[in-house]
Amino acid sequence: MKKLTRFTFLSLLAVSLALSLSACGCDGNGNSTESVAVTWTGLAANGQENAADTTALTLTFDKDPTSLTAAHITLTGATKGELTGAGTTRTLAISGIEAGEGENVTVSIANPPGFTISGGPKTVAVHRAMPGVIVEEVAWIGLT
């Protein structure tokens, strides 16, 4: 029987490790290279028609895209801010809305590490306060 040299043994060990990692869907550092499928299920805007500007968009998903950050989101028609939240709901702060009252902004999401997000891009109607108009709730008292 042939004696294995140290080089041959290490070469076989390296090949074995590479095959094991590729079979499990792992990179060379042992991290998974497989992505989890996530469906983006909803997009909603806060604010009030002609009374209060939209300041946040709520994004909902069927699974938690844990590595999603604001850097993965593209917003057309406004300026994006901080992304907050956890689990299946995230809130994106927005400002500088270019669209008029009831018009749409568009949101798209690039796949964050470890996830493949489907269901986009999406549009949502935003709200704008009318300049110079103050909306107050007034309680009317009936006179008898």
Distance between the termini: 113 Å
Largest sheet, strands/sense/barrel: 5 strands, mixed
Q: What is Rg?
A: 26 Å
Low-confidence stretches: none
Order of helices and strands: HEEEEEEEE
Helical residue percent band: 10-25%
Textual characterization of the structure:
With 144 residues, the protein is mainly beta. Helices cover 13% and strands 34% of the residues. It has one helix and eight strands, in the order αββββββββ. It has one helix at 6-24, and strands at 36-45, 56-61, 73-76, 79-86, 89-95, 104-109, 115-118, 122-125. The strands form two sheets. Strands 4-5-2-1-7 form a five-stranded mixed β-sheet, with no helix packed on it. It has a three-stranded antiparallel β-sheet with strand order 3-6-8, with no helix packed on it. The longest helix has 19 residues, at 6-24. The chain is elongated and about 105 Å long. It starts with 5 loop residues before the first helix and ends in a 19-residue tail after the last strand.
Topology:
Blueprint: H1 6-24, E1 36-45, E2 56-61, E3 73-76, E4 79-86, E5 89-95, E6 104-109, E7 115-118, E8 122-125
Parallel strand pairs: 1-7
Antiparallel strand pairs: 1-2, 2-5, 3-6, 4-5, 6-8
Question: What's the gist of this structure?
Answer:
This protein is 13% helix and 34% strand. The chain contains one helix and eight strands; from the N terminus they run H-E-E-E-E-E-E-E-E.
List keywords for this structure.
1 helix, mainly beta, single chain, 144 residues
